[in-house]
Amino acid sequence: MYQFRSIRTFSFSIALILLAGYHICTHRTQAKASESTFPADEKLPVESFDSKASLADQDSVDILLKAGFKLKRAANGEVSEVDLTDAQIDSQIVDALAELENLGILRLRRTNISDEDLGKLEGLTRLRMIDLRNTNITDEGLSSLAKLKSLVDIQLEKSKITDSGVAKLADLKLKSINFNYCTTISNESLRVIGAIPTIEQIQLDYTKIDDKGMAALANAKRLKRLRIRGTDVTGEGLAHLSNLTEIARLNLRDSSVDDAGLEVISAMPKINYLDISECRLATPEGIAKIGKLPGLEYLSLWETKTNDATMESLGNLRNLQTLILKATNISDQSLPALLKMTNLVDLDVAGTQLSDDSFLALGKLPRLKKMNVANTRIGFDVIDELSDSREDLQVIEFEN
């Protein structure tokens, strides 16, 4: 018996070393991928272009393809999308982009694109989406974007813009904006955004907006997605959203959301995605109000005050596909509620007080594909049993 345990301990140590190496290699990629929730970045194939491409565009296409960039074309052969993510851009590349008159989507994330370069792109009158995340674009560059009346989606996360620059975009018929981590953005910008009648998606993580500014969104009738992580917004601010019936996705992680805010959220008819991870003002009783949202498909409660009594109120969330309970105060008493969630595909119970018997029972959920049990008391034999009984189930034993 002692020899067997020694072998298992040695194997476990080797696995830890190998996984640590894996995490070192993948950590940066995962961090970049998590910076934004929407819209998702599309991985584009490198397209070859034939005679259908317009002759006017062909020289520009050749320059971009020669540089190894990702291009996508419409059915008529015109270039409709260019992805220059992580590229080093020079004047020749900018000039080539300026010739693509039918370009609809331009991805420039983590590039050295400048305000001056954007001025050269003012002729792209069919451009609908531009991704300028992690660039040094400033308010001066927004003057050029304001002239592109076709724009509906602007991604400026971690750029250098301020409220003055956002004001320049007031006349655009925008549907989606991303100003995450533009840390000087305040309620002044929220008033500009809230006055845009076409707005559907807003991202303002770690900006200076607060409850007073949220009043500007009261008439944003088309709003479907709101992400305001790390902001000082409480129930007082969320109350201004109570008449917005189209909201389907709320990401409020690490914000000041409290029980009053959860009461407002619990009455939103179309919510299917809710993240209140690290919202430390919400009590177990307040979190229980989420049980009034039967349409939820994604729920993250990581590092909240969720406990067994809370889970009893959440048992009827039977449409849930992803549930994150990492580092919450749940135990085996929550098992009956969890077993009611028969549509779960991804379950994170890392750092909880569940026992081996509960893990085995959860492993029988019919649609479950992934279960995170890191930092729990699960036994090696239980992990083996789960793996042997469900080849389609990924059990995550440890994480950094």
From TrEMBL:
Any one biological process term the GO annotation gives: SCF-dependent proteasomal ubiquitin-dependent protein catabolic process
SMART domains (alphabetical): LRR_CC
Record's GO cellular component terms: SCF ubiquitin ligase complex
Highest taxon above the source species: Bacteria
Pfam families associated with the record: LRR_6 (PF13516)
InterPro entries found in the cross-reference section: Leu-rich_rpt, Leu-rich_rpt_Cys-con_subtyp, LRR_dom_sf
Protein name stated in the entry: Leucine Rich repeats (2 copies)
Taxonomic lineage of the native organism: Bacteria, Pseudomonadati, Planctomycetota, Planctomycetia, Pirellulales
